[in-house]
Write a structure and sequence with these properties.
β14 (about 290-300) and β15 (about 300-305) form a beta hairpin. The strands form 3 sheets. Strands 5, 6, 7, 8, 9, 10, 13, 14 and 15 form a 9-stranded mixed beta sheet that branches. Strands 2-3-1-4 form a 4-stranded antiparallel beta sheet, with helices on one face. Helices cover about 25% and strands about 25% of the residues. α1 runs antiparallel to α2. By secondary structure, it is of the alpha+beta class. The protein folds into 2 domains: about 1-120, Alpha-Beta Plaits (2-Layer Sandwich); about 120-340, no CATH class. The longest helix has 20 residues, at about 65-85. It contains 9 helices and 15 strands. The radius of gyration is 20 Å and the shape is globular. The protein starts with a strand and ends in a 7-residue tail after the last helix. It binds fructose -6-phosphate and magnesium ion (2 copies). One magnesium ion (MG) binds near residues 11, 51, 52 and 232. Its cofactor is Mg(2+). Homooctamer; dimer of tetramers. InterPro entries: FBPase_V (IPR002803), FBPase_V_sf (IPR036076). Belongs to the FBP aldolase/phosphatase family.
Length: about 350
């Protein structure tokens, strides 16, 4: 069956500070999505949280960017914001940049990753959710999963993957995208995606057209014109049977590479893979976290989630992340712990430095 998987997320209030989501908000979201399943608007749905971000994972047959589905997500975020306001959660309604829904949540604050595909005889899917970082954070992981044979043995061994993948890369400054073929163009690809604040991998397809991965790419600062919280991204990756195995997909997270985000969205920090219960960034509002929710799809039903990083084999990555976090913290306000000047443009720092203008002689 032809299916659409929509992951739509927003930070509508933190509990406590920006560290996690409140159970009452999650419960309300769950009730509303259950009702939508009863009413046949959705085939199935799950509500999860990563840090202060509420994650709506939904299956349906209405295609990507369907107004009905986006409106449903919007209504859930509005209802959740009401609860967040009542509980005086921190930053209630933070990612809701407009009062009126205009047909699509993109450009209005929430983030979305959606893909439509024919459900395979068995279709394992992993939804990655990150907090305290931004969309380009996945560049490293997606490259490892779909283009690095040191990570993904199937690129060498599996005839279905041997021809490689097509990466679609979005230029955040112009809004234009380019498709690059791997392995032929890996050096060009790396030339772009090594600058994740500028170039972001949006999707990955197998050369025969099979849609393998889709990431959210919304940048709140680009929408609001100033810093209004980070654009904590989500990513959908399908696995197995001619695609990277679930273990190859997860392997790409075994090293906690450094991503921008963390405190005030202004610092570099390691992306720590954690289980659902540890997705609560607290030290210096971090370090950045990533969780992985695994599902088997069964006629559009979401069999899961399985908490994929709830595994001692990721303990070393977590220890390493804490070591890197410690080293970066020792740098205090100095680069490379703090982001370079260009990336601080949308923060509150320029308004502080402005006051010095007249004192330069
Ligand atoms: C990062 C984040 C937090 C806040 C920080 C200051 O994405 O959300 O690190 O930036 O807690 O928050 P305010 O300025 O609201 O006190
Ligand atoms: Mg927040
Ligand atoms: Mg967040």
């Amino acid at each position: 069956m032809k299916l659409t998987l929509s992951v739509i997320k927003a930070d509508i209030g933190g509990f406590v500070g920006h560290s996690s989501s409140h159970p009452e908000v999650m419960e309300k979201a769950g009730e509303m999505l259950d009702k939508a399943v009863e009413d046949d608007k959705l085939i199935d749905a799950r509500v999860l949280a990563c840090g202060d971000d509420l994650q709506l994972i939904m299956t349906h047959q209405k295609g990507v960017e369907a107004e009905e589905i986006h409106k449903l997500a919007w209504d859930v975020f509005m209802a959740g914001t009401d609860i967040a306001k009542k509980l005086k959660l921190y930053g209630a309604g933070q990612d809701i940049l407009s009062d009126a829904f205009s047909g699509n949540v993109k450009g209005m604050g929430p983030g979305a990753a959606e893909m439509s595909f024919e459900e395979r005889p068995s279709d394992p899917v992993i939804v990655f959710m990150a907090d305290k970082t931004s969309p380009g954070a996945w560049n490293y992981n997606l490259y490892k999963i779909f283009a690095d044979a040191f990570n993904t043995a199937g690129l060498v061994i599996d005839p279905h993957m041997h021809d490689g993948f097509i990466f679609e890369v979005l230029d955040l400054k112009t809004g234009k995208a380019v498709k690059l073929n791997t392995p032929e163009e890996i050096y060009t690809l790396l030339g772009l995606i090594g600058s994740p604040e500028h170039y972001v991998i949006r999707s990955v397809h197998r050369k025969d057209g099979l849609w393998a991965a889709e990431a959210s790419t919304q940048k709140l600062s680009k929408i609001a014109g100033k810093y209004v919280g980070k654009d904590d991204p989500v990513l959908i990756v399908r696995g197995q049977a001619g695609l990277p195995a679930v273990g190859e997909i997860l392997e790409a997270f075994s090293y906690p590479h450094i991503v921008p985000g963390w405190m005030r969205g202004s610092h570099n920090g390691p992306l720590m893979p954690v289980s659902f219960c540890d997705a609560t960034p607290s030290r210096f509002d971090g370090p950045p976290r990533v969780t992985a929710a695994g599902f088997q799809l069964a006629e559009g039903k979401l069999v899961g989630p399985r908490d994929m990083f709830d595994d001692p084999s990721f303990d070393t990555a977590r220890v390493k992340a804490n070591q890197l976090a410690e080293d970066l913290r020792r740098h205090g306000p100095f680069q490379p712990a703090r982001l370079p000047e260009g990336d601080m443009e949308y923060t509150t720092l320029p308004s502080i430095l402005e006051k010095l203008e007249g004192r330069f002689e």
